[in-house]
Amino acid sequence: MQPGFFKRNEKVIMVILLALIAPTFAFTGVMYSALTRSDSDAYSIFGKVYSHSDFARMQIQAANLDRIANSRASRDEDGLDPFHYIIFKEEAKRLQIAVDDAELADIVRGRAIGLITTLELSNDATIKTEQQRQAAFYSKFATTQFSEKAYREALKRFYPGISPKQFEEALRESRTIEKLFQLASSAAVVSNKEIYKEFEQRNQRRAIDYVALPVSGFLDEARAKVAEEAIDSRYAENPAEFKTPLRVALEVYKLRLDAYKAAEPVSEEEIAARYEADKQNRWRKTPETKEPAANEAAGTGGDPAPPAAPEFRPLEEVRDLVKKMIEDEREKLLLGTLNTEAMKQKIAGAASLDLQAALGEKAGFVEVIPTGLFSRDDIATVAPGIGNDIALRRVLSQVGAGTLNAGDYGANVVVVPDGGDFNYKVVEIQKEVIPPLAECRDRVRQALAKEQAMELARAKLGEWKQKVAAKEATLPDLAQAANCTIQSLPALQKNETIKALGADGKVIPGARDLLLSAFAIPEVGELGEPVVPAGRLELIPDVYLALLREIVPPDPLEFTEELKGRIEREVRQRKSMAAGAAYLSSLESRAQITKLYKEIPREPDAEEASAEEAAAE
Question: What integer pLDDT is reported at residue 336 of this predicted model?
Answer without folding.
Answer: 66
